[in-house]
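Support request from a user on the community tier.

User writes: "When I paste my structure tokens into the form, the page sometimes reloads and wipes my input. The last time it worked, I copied everything first. Here is what I submitted, just in case something in the input itself triggers the reload:"
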């Protein structure tokens, strides 16, 4: 066992050829998936079922679409983060049990009791639902592009910045109950993440197993504490604001890699460790890789405090000290140097508010 036993809310089933085994025992179920995933794996689904193809995770969209599925007996959420979150939301609002089948590990959505939804393009975490089981099919996970699975390690790397914010929060607002045991565990997780980077990059069985067990460790404590501030704090707030500024979704673990880079620098907290781990993992946090401009990055940083206060997000380093234009200029220059980024005509050499 890589991590100590914490609880039993998140039951994992590891194996191969799991979809036929799961669905052989189900009938009149609803599959919530993206179109590509459903087409790829529909022949493995047994018995009578309906399918909902996820368009987005705007609550207004799902509130309208869910009306067609009142009669189903259970929900199978199958895909990446959006499909899993949509499935959780629909299962909870239908009052049905859910079986989660992540097809990629780019985000820890299957291991969260809350659903990451959107309300008018702003990320909003809501609800409370636990799966009957999470099915980790090694062949299915390994069938996804490697870079997608590797990027999920960014969600684990978030423990580096989030645990710092959690301690800070405990000394100021105390809005999220603190535990030194969990905070120490987050540092242990980071050490184990570093040890398992080669397996993660290969997306071999050991790498998949490590990531899922790490996600489960976070998830089981989240069920006990009713929050996950040791894994989701200033770096996730920065991600939320980048999505708001850019008006587009991101590959979750990839954007979290970027936000851990900047928030660890802002915290003056293990920053070079974060840089080293991002490079070893090979998570592409460049402007080109993320499909953003330097201006958008600067705007995301310069408006971050206003965004967190407007949205009522938890107290973190973002609230503790100002993010100045001078700091942003320095931070962006360092980022470009660290990752070999050269400004082009679409980006600015200096940040402006």
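"...and here is what came back when it finally went through:"
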């Amino acid at each position: 066992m890589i991590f100590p036993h914490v609880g039993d809310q998140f039951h994992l089933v590891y194996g191969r050829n799991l979809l036929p085994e799961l669905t052989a025992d189900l009938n009149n179920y609803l599959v919530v998936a993206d179109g590509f995933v459903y087409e790829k794996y529909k022949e493995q689904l047994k018995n009578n079922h309906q399918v909902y193809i996820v368009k987005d995770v705007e609550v207004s969209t799902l509130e309208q679409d869910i009306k067609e599925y009142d009669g189903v007996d259970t929900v199978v959420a199958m895909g990446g983060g959006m499909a899993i979150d949509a499935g959780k939301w629909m299962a909870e609002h239908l009052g049905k049990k859910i079986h989660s089948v992540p097809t990629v590990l780019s985000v820890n959505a299957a291991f969260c009791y809350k659903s990451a939804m959107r309300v008018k393009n702003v990320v909003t975490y809501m609800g409370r639902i636990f799966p009957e089981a999470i099915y980790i099919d090694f062949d299915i996970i390994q069938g996804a592009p490697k870079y997608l699975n590797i990027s999920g390690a960014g969600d684990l790397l978030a423990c580096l910045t989030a645990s710092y914010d959690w301690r800070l929060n405990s000394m100021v607002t105390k809005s999220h109950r603190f535990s030194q045991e969990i905070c120490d565990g987050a540092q242990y997780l980071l050490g184990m993440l570093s040890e398992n980077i080669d397996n993660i990059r290969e997306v071999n069985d050991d790498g998949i197993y490590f990531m899922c067990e790490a996600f489960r460790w976070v998830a089981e404590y989240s069920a006990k504490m009713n929050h996950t501030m040791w894994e989701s704090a200033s770096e996730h707030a920065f991600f939320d604001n980048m999505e708001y500024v850019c008006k587009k979704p991101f590959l979750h673990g990839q954007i979290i890699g970027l936000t851990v880079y900047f928030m660890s620098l802002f915290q003056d907290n293990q920053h070079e460790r974060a840089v080293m781990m991002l490079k070893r993992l090979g998570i592409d946090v460049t402007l080109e890789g993320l499909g953003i401009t330097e201006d958008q990055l600067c705007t995301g940083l310069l408006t971050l405090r206003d965004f967190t206060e407007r949205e009522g997000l938890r107290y973190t380093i973002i609230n503790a000290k100002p993010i100045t234009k001078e700091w942003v200029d320095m931070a962006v220059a360092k980022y470009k140097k660290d990752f070999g980024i050269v400004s082009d005509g679409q980006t600015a050499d200096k940040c402006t508010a």
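Agent notes: The reload is a front-end session timeout and is unrelated to the input. The longest helix spans residues 205-225. The domain at 12-144 is CATH 3.40.50.1970 (Rossmann fold). Escalated to web team.
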